[in-house]
Amino acid sequence: MKKKEDISDAEKKLWHEYLKNPKDIFDKELENKKPHERPKRCRFDLHGFTLSEANKKTRELIIYCQENNFKEILLITGKGLHSNTDQNTYVSKELSKLKFAVPEYIKTQKDLSEKIFSIESAQANDGGDGAIIVKIKKL
Question: Is the pTM of this model over 0.85?
Answer without folding.
Answer: no
